[in-house]
Amino acid sequence: MFGYYLQLGLRSLRRNPVLTGLMVIAIGFGVAASMITYSVFRAVSGNPIPDKSEVLFTPQIDSWGPQQNIHGEPPYALNYVDAMALWRAHRAKRQTLLYSVWLSAQPDQGHGLPQGADGYAVTADFFPMFEVPFLYGSGWSANADDGHATQVVISEEFNQRMFGGANSVGREVVLGGHAYRVVGVTRHWNPKPRFFAASGSTSGFRDPTDFYIPFARAVDLQLDTAGNNSCRGNPGFNGYAGWLQSNCVWVTPWVELDNAADVAAYRRFLESYAAEQQRAGRFAWAPNVRLRDVMQWLDYRQMVPPESRVALVVALGFFIICLVNTVGLLLAKFMRRAGEIGVRRALGAPRKQIYAQYLIEAASVGGAGGVLGLVLTALGISGVGILFRPQIARLAHLDLSLVGLCLVLAVLATLVAAFYPAWRAAQVQPAWQLKSH
């Protein structure tokens, strides 16, 4: 009976091409608006490291006090003194400190003009903690951290620019006028959002990082941060050494904690450390610490751009309006065939067959609307940069999952919209229709 009802439905749609076209257009535009904005929202709100997001935490310590902090929240990063104290305590399975740096780069042969490169000063645990994949070589060892080694890990993209994509392990690259020996080349790795150094709604969606150098080496060279650097009060420091001892926050710490007991123990350690600083007179306020995992951190830093949420809500509202219009059009279409329904009911057709016929007919409308919506979605994604910043817009793409979702959503939404018109059609009284016709 499904094939028969489908044939009846398609024949009915052909008899009213204008009404059918209006329904297909309504469904198509509603689905397309929803899918375009959802493709952006999906890209910016996903879990950037799903395998380990629940065991990676960033500690926060209030080094500013209640008069200077952010609505009672500790600063988003640590100053150098607190960061090194946590590092030396080594209370986690793995831990890393990092900050952003920007340097000029030149390959070891010295051919070509220098170019700017975006990187991070990190410690050895950074690579296993964040599951950084390697094309050649590996990260450096903890001994390299202790020895302030002049080693570097570069990205696949940076390796292509500097060395033509060849295995560059053992070769040198000049960064900021200093030579570094390449120990590893990462495969393409650019988690979105860039959770480990999130400092705003756009910083997490930049191009892949070019290089990673040892944190201790960066401090030895007095490299300033290329990221956020926030100070409170009147720091009154002179030179780089004074900056390291100030309350300016610019170092992001991360720790790996395997279970709830480890998390609780590390939180107690943070509270104990803050209390110790209070007793020493460095802090004049009660301990105020936080320990957030990856998803909690991204939510706190508001990494999902607000415009993506607003656009998604508006698009869903537009889709609902399209469905309401579709309900009216289907109701008008079905009730125009009341006489046909009355004859079928008089000949013994049960109500469930009326439901089946008209819901199948509505599903065919939804399928056609889904195809139209798919075409409009592909066109809309190519122009999504009109609504969103380039860093966000280029993340949206049409893949098989979005194709499937587009078609399924169109059919299911049309079936929901058709339920009331189909119910009204099934309630037609055969006697009234036979008497009037």
UniProtKB/TrEMBL annotation:
Signal peptide range in chain numbering = none
Tree of life domain: Bacteria
Q: Which named protein is this?
A: ABC transporter permease
Q: How does it sit in the membrane?
A: Multi-pass membrane protein
Q: Which residues form the ABC3 transporter permease C-terminal domain?
A: 313-430
- Domain MacB-like periplasmic core span(s) in chain numbering: 20-265
Subcellular location field: Cell membrane
Q: Which organism is it from?
A: Fulvimonas yonginensis
Stored InterPro entries: ABC3_permease_C, MacB_PCD, Macrolide_Exporter_MacB
